[in-house]
Each structure stands twice: as structure tokens, then as C-alpha cells.
Amino acid sequence: MTMIPMQVSKASAGATTTYDPEEMDRINQENLKELKSMRERTNWEIEEERKQFIFDLIDLIKDWRWPLPNLHLEDILRKEEIHWLLTESMVGDLNYDGERIIDFVARTDYKDMPDVNEDGKPPSVRTTPVHHAFGHRKETWTIQYLFKIYDRFDVNYMDEFGLTHFHVACVYGLGDVVEKFLELGQDPNCLVPETAQSPLHLALNHCSRQVTELLLKYGANPNLTDKNFSTPLHIICKIQHSDVLANMLFELANDKYEPVQVDAQNKFGNTPLNLTVVSDNKIVAELLLKKGVIRI
């Protein structure tokens, strides 16, 4: 690994370390040259060589200094190769090194370039690294970087199980991503087929106030039930200190969905009020009583 000489300046609170810009640029150019060479000597049709390319890339980017000026990844790798690289980074055994690759690609400002139909739009049924990252429970920052790469919000990519990019954004509480989808006409009530959970269920299960507020403002139905017949209110009542979410649900729910069903029973016979007892959620229990709960 090439070492970069550092310039050290003293600050009043201690020493501040900075990299020599000229030396940094020189190292980056050397790394860019090596990346091109790596691709040229790799037969992409051979799996072993593709895997070796990944390992070599991991070693290379460990020594790559940010930012990454003039690095046009699409001029070095074909879009199918980049898609494979990102997918393998999520589904393989690379762990943190896989996330490092996602970070690297996102910082190059590379954007996914999907194939399009006759109408000029990509097909919505397409499994992407975003789906794989969700399935492998990757960190939030990894999902955020992937959405910088897969940044089409006018199409909601759906995998074979019906899980969409919009669902993933709701789970991870990515308010900026959720808002972009909604602004472009995304249905705030699209269900996850396997669980029948609505985006509101997903956001509340992960206590995301920002996403919950956005969904309600864009017309999310607070009375939809999942496969266990639980409403969003059931979820709120299972969470301690959830009075802000409860008030939000009642105050922001679209008029056409009123009233919010405060007495709904889930598959197990529990009402929202029952669940406040289990979670010792006294503030929300009092709110429900004010809203006219009948069934206890």
C-alpha cells in the first residue's frame, strides 16, 4: 500500500492532520490506472476471475482517498458488471468489505442505468441490491448509499415477493427517499403481499416519526389491517412512550378515513387499549378513552 505524506498543522485545541492535495491526487490517479488494468485483465465470464476482481478492488479502495474526481465508473465497467458487483457485495460473504464497495461506488456518483421499455420507463419488477441489502439486514447508511445509486423514484422496483424500494425506505426511516417517491405519485397504501403490511405499518414498527408523518400527509389509510388484522394503532399501542405517534395518527389522518378505528380487534382478540395495558402505555390509554373506546 502506498503511503501518503501528511502535512500537520497545530491548532489551539491540538494537532490537525491534513493530506497533501497534490500527493492525494497523484495516488488517486495511480489507483484509477490500476482499476482500469484490473478490468482489462479480468475475464468477466469466468466466476473465479470476477471474484478475484472483487478482492483486488477491496484492497485498492482501502488506499483510495476521497473525493474521487473524474472517476467515471461506467467508462471502466459495463452497467451489468457494476450491478453484479453491487449485488455480490450484499449477498456474498464480504461483510463490511461489501459495504465498503457500496460506499465507494456511491462516492463516484455512479447512477444505475436500467433498461427501459417502449414507453421509456424501466420495468418495475426487478430485484436490486436494495432488496438484497434489506434481506441481509444491512446498516441504514448502506441502504442510503444504495438509494444514491438506484435513484429512480418514478418507478418502484419490486422483487419476486412484492417487496418494493418504497417499502424498504419506509422500514429504514429514510424520510428524504420516501418523500421523493410520494412526490412522484407513489401510492402510500401499497401493501407487502407476504404480510399485508402497509407502509404505515412498516414505519411504525420501526418508530419512524418522519416517515409516519409523510405517509399520513400523503393519504395513508390508518385503518388498514395486516395479516394478523392489526391496524397501525395496534402497533403504536405496543410501543412505550408512543403518545406523539398516536396523536399524529389522529390529527393527520385523511378525512375520508375517519374515524380511526379505536376498537378494532386483531387476530388474537386484542384491541389497541388491551395492548396499552401490556406495554404500560398509560398516556396513550388515556388518549384512547378520550376518543371514545367502547370495547375494553
Elements, N to C (H/E) = EEHHHHHHHHHHHHHH
Shape category:
elongated
Poorly predicted regions: 1-17
Cα radius of gyration in angstroms = 24 Å
Going by helix content, strand content and strand pairing, the class is mainly alpha
Question: What is the terminal-to-terminal distance?
Answer: 68 Å
- The average pLDDT score comes to 89
Helix content: 40-55%
Tally of alpha and pi helices: 14
How is this structure best described in words?
The protein is mainly alpha-helical and 296 residues long. Among the domains are: 20-108; 219-296, Ankyrin repeat-containing domain (Serine Threonine Protein Phosphatase 5, Tetratricopeptide repeat), CATH 1.25.40.20. The chain is built from 14 helices and two strands. It has helices at 21-40, 47-61, 79-91, 96-107, 129-135, 140-149, 165-171, 175-183, 199-205, 209-217, 232-238, 243-252, 272-278, 282-290; strands spanning 6-11, 14-19. It has a two-stranded antiparallel ribbon. The termini are far apart. ANK repeats lie at residues 195-227. InterPro entries: Ankyrin_rpt, Ankyrin_rpt-contain_sf, Cul2-RING_E3_ligase_SR. Keywords: ANK repeat. Pfam families: Ank_2.
